[in-house]
């Protein structure tokens, strides 16, 4: 097996093993689930902030026209 490919597979396995998740929202506001690694706080916070922005901007579509 190519050494580069082997390293990529190992890194992917590590990422999947250390994956946490958080659900944001509720049935009234819409719910979005975000997968992060809380051991890497800055990227996790950025990903959560992005998810909140998407949820807010797409709320009407998520809730079928209701806001």
Structure notes:
The protein is of the alpha+beta class. The protein starts with a helix and ends in a 5-residue tail after the last helix. It contains 3 helices and 2 strands; from the N terminus they run αββαα. It has a two-stranded antiparallel sheet. The mean pLDDT is 85. It is elongated and about 50 Å long.
Tell me briefly what this model is:
The protein is of the alpha+beta class and 67 residues long. The protein has helices at 3-17, 41-57, 59-62; strands at residues 20-26, 30-36. The chain is 54% helix and 21% strand.
Q: Tell me about the biggest sheet?
A: 2 strands, antiparallel
Number of strands: 2
Spatial strand arrangement across the major sheet? 1-2
Give the helix level as a range of percent.
40-55%
Percentage of residues in strands: 15-25%
Oligomeric organization of the protein chains: single chain
Helix-strand string: HEEHH
Task: Please mark out the parts with pLDDT under 50 across 5 or more consecutive residues, or reply none.
Answer: none
Write a concise keyword list for the protein shown above.
67 residues, alpha+beta, two-stranded antiparallel sheet, elongated
């Amino acid at each position: 097996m190519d050494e580069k490919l082997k390293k990529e597979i190992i890194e992917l396995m590590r990422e999947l093993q250390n994956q946490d998740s958080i659900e944001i929202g509720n049935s009234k506001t819409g719910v979005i689930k975000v997968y992060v690694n809380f051991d890497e706080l800055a990227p996790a916070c950025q990903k959560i902030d992005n998810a909140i922005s998407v949820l807010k901007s797409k709320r009407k579509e998520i809730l079928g026209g209701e806001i």
